[in-house]
Amino acid sequence: MRKTQWFDFRNFIHKPSLSSSIKPRPFKAYSFVPFSPLAMLDPTILTLGGIVLGIAIIERILERWGVIDLVDQFSKVMRFILPVTFYGALFYFFATFMF
């Protein structure tokens, strides 16, 4: 048969520590956070990629139709938009999913 032992709550909680307080030594902990390629399916990145891809497709269609002046205008715009969009999306990806 088990004997039930009763404790006074106040004495149980406020019992002084019997062992000396030893401060643990600090240590360096390194972590690696892998990211999934599925993170590229973020709506912002997909929207930016879709806009750039759409402009490139429109440029090719206009080239086939023979509207060379308009194609030249698109290519001038794309020379600026493509690097800015790429580096902006890359910065957004790393800032959002890595930190």
Can you offer a commentary on this structure?
With 99 residues, the chain is an all-alpha fold. Helix content is 59%, strand content 0%. The chain is built from 3 helices and no strands. Helix 2 runs antiparallel to helix 3. The chain is rod-shaped and about 95 Å long. The two termini are 58 Å apart.
List the helices and strands and how they pair.
Elements: H1 9-13, H2 43-65, H3 68-97
Helix pairs in contact: 2-3
Characteristic key phrases:
59% helix, 99 residues, mainly alpha, rod-shaped
Fraction of helical residues:
55-70%
The largest β sheet comes out as: none
Low-confidence segments, ≥5 residues, pLDDT <50?
none
| First-last Cα distance | 58 Å
- How do the helices and strands follow one another from N- to C-terminus? HHH
How would you describe the shape? rod-shaped
Rg: 32 Å
Structural class: mainly alpha
What fraction of the residues are assigned to beta strands by DSSP?
under 5%
Please sum up the structure shown.
The chain is an all-alpha fold. It has helices at 9-13, 43-65, 68-97.
